[in-house]
Specification:
- The protein is mainly alpha-helical and about 230 residues long.
- It has helices at about 1-15, 20-25, 25-105, 115-145, 150-175, 190-195, 205-225, and strands spanning about 105, 115, 185.
- The two termini are about 70 Å apart.
Length: about 230
């Protein structure tokens, strides 16, 4: 840069004092000197422009690469959490079916359904793990707006899902210390469980507080990952 400035100054001086320098050095020598200085000035200027252009291009390329890497990391993070969210959704639904199949009994001659506490305990522990994951995910979604840009409705839906599962766990924590593992207890003592494992058409809270909000959250997460509308998981 300094050499180019000096060369440019020298060229300007030669042009301004051309006649005097020509008489002093001779016309041919003057022309040769002037050509040499101009070549140096122009060459240096072109070199500087080329270097500056390359630096700008390299900087733009680096910025584009960093943005691409950032976008990829965000996309992979969303994909991972979508997979885990689907898994927790299935854990709760699978536990509901297993409770209905293995934890409920109706002794011969008795009208009321009873809960086998050992099996109840077994499957509720799976639901407990799902509730803890959903609780953590709920906090994460609200804390990281870059990875999870959310709407108010989605936050409300996720809170509904986690809150519903937490109500099952609250009942579980309250009743388990009062019964033996080998006991069978009337399902009327478990109102939240009774609603949870009841017929789907009659399970209003399960549908409205868990299934429908979860479908909304899954739809939102899929849209973030795929960048296009998707069909919620039934």
């Amino acid at each position: 840069m300094a050499c180019s400035v000096i060369g440019l100054t020298l060229a300007a001086a030669l042009v301004a004092r051309g006649e005097a320098v020509s008489r002093s050095l001779g016309p041919e020598t003057y022309k040769t000197l002037l050509q040499f200085v101009l070549v140096v000035v122009l060459g240096g200027a072109v070199s500087l422009i080329y270097q500056a252009t390359n630096r700008d291009a390299d900087l733009r390329l680096l910025q584009a690469q960093r943005e691409e890497e950032r976008t990829l990391v965000i996309r992979e993070t969303r994909q991972q959490y979508l997979r885990e969210l689907i898994e927790q959704y299935h854990v709760v639904k699978r536990s509901r079916r297993m409770l209905r199949a293995h934890a409920l009994t109706r002794p011969f001659g008795e009208p009321d359904i009873r809960v086998m506490i050992g099996k109840y305990d077994e499957f509720m522990q799976l639901i407990l793990d799902a509730q803890l994951w959903l609780e953590g995910f709920n906090h994460l979604v609200q804390a990281d707006g870059e990875v999870f840009p959310t709407e108010v409705g989605i936050v409300r839906s996720l809170k509904s899902v986690e809150g519903y599962v937490r109500s099952l766990i609250a009942e579980y924590e309250s009743l388990m210390p009062t019964v033996r593992d080998d006991a069978e207890v009337a399902i009327s003592a478990f109102p939240a469980l009774a609603e949870f494992v009841g017929p789907y058409a009659e399970s209003g809270s399960f549908r409205e507080l868990f299934i429908h909000p979860m479908q909304a959250v899954l739809h939102h997460m899929r849209t973030l990952v795929l960048k296009e509308p998707s069909v919620p998981i039934p």
